[in-house]
Design brief:
The chain is mainly alpha-helical. The chain is 63% helix and 7% strand. A three-stranded mixed β-sheet has the order 1-2-3. It starts with a helix and ends in an 8-residue tail after the last helix.
């Protein structure tokens, strides 16, 4: 058993020694490769040495014969077509700029067209509204003229005044007639005229189910106040037709 152990130990030592030997050999080869002079530099050194030996008698070293080799252009120098990539890049940037300018021009044209369309529609709506208002005013004026002609033909006195509504004229005539103790009858469909009721003024109110003649007694029985207080009633009740909330 001692001999076997000794043999195994020697065998392991031999393997370790072989591995170390190969490792040192590889290290030596690597160092040799790193310190080996390149062929080009070796040629330059040899040429310089040869020139120096022949020129030793003259006292000045001869120029190196390998100088033309240094001035020779390397075959890997870029050719005239090398800037193709920058040119292509510049062309791409120019195209991008043109595309951006075209897109901006299209957006501006679209915005201008939309603004013009909005302005055109607004002008058209304004013109239509003005034409409609003019037509309605002409229709009202014609209707008023026809009503006046019909009333005069039936023997009624027609009273008008520019800038005043019919309610204003009716109220003025009723007040003057009441002051002169003349009996007056107002035929209307507007309940606002009920405030004009007095001992000499009565209102014939037109309704869907027929006409109702309001005097002081009927007015009080329906509203519980006198006709002169009807303004207060309207203020409390409100009237959307007269913009009273």
């Amino acid at each position: 058993m001692d001999n076997n152990q000794r043999d195994n130990r020697y065998r392991k030592q031999g393997i370790i020694g072989t591995i170390l030997f190969h490792a040192l050999l590889i290290l030596f080869l690597c160092l040799a490769a790193m310190t080996t002079t390149p062929p080009e530099e070796e040629a330059l050194i040899l040429d310089y040495g040869a020139g120096g030996g022949s020129a030793g008698s003259s006292g000045s070293p001869a120029p190196a014969q390998s100088a033309p080799a240094e001035s020779e252009p390397a075959p890997s120098q870029p050719a005239a077509s090398a800037p193709a990539e920058p040119v292509a890049k510049a062309d791409g940037e120019t195209k991008d700029t043109q595309d951006f300018e075209e897109a901006a021009a299209l957006r501006e044209a679209k915005r201008k067209a939309e603004a013009e369309e909005i302005a055109r529609k607004a002008a058209e709506e304004k013109a239509n509204a003005e034409a409609k208002a003019k037509a309605e005013a002409e229709a009202k004026a014609k209707a008023a003229a026809d009503a006046k002609a019909a009333a005069e033909a039936m023997g009624f006195l027609v009273v008008t005044k520019s800038g005043y509504e019919a309610d204003d004229i009716i109220g003025t005539v009723a007040a003057k007639s009441d002051a002169l103790l003349y009996d007056s009858y107002i035929y209307t469909g507007d309940r606002d005229s009920l405030q004009l009721i007095s001992s000499h003024t009565k209102v014939l109110l037109a309704k869907n189910k027929g006409n109702v003649l309001f005097d002081e007694k009927l007015f009080f029985s329906e509203y519980g106040v006198n006709a002169s207080q009807f303004v207060d009633v309207k203020a409390l009740m409100g009237d959307s037709s007269d913009n009273i909330p």
